[in-house]
Please model this.
Amino acid sequence: MPDSKSPKPAPTPAPAPRRSDATRTSILEAARERFASDGYERATIRAIAKDAGIDPSMVMRYFGNKEGLFAAAVSVDLALPNLSALTRDEVGRVLVTHFLALGEENEVLTALLRVGVTNPSGAERMQGIFREQVLPVALAVCPDPEQVPARAVLVSTQLLGLAVTRYVLRFPSAVSLTPEEVTAWLAPTVQRYLTAPHP
Model:
């Protein structure tokens, strides 16, 4: 019979972080600083690797290319407005106006949109923004909670379509529209997607 008074074995120490995790973290930290200071176009894998104190081939090993690194490193807060102070009929106009202002000022969002249409990591990041930031807005105003995902994705087709044509592809007819014109055209559609009865 074992001695009930014998000391219990010491708890197993938590495993030390793997070297690969530390390398990945240092790359991401260097990338965030470099993208913030130089912008997406001017930031290079070589400069980011130098900042992280590693060989450029290591960056490629972990993230594939600059697009994949950017998508992994950058987060975008859409800072969507609080809808609780609005009437339901104002939501479409407020969202379109806010998104336009964001697009005019946020180069990181434009770069992420560009990456998102060409890179799987960028697409995943954009889907994450949709789940975490757009779905809650739809949930707050939609009349039928079971239709929230469909309504939110329809809103996204309008806002992302606007952003891609105006800020990424820069269609002349999209660029030339004033914010007031865009809002007048788009807000009723966004409003309908959010609050109209299900067809």
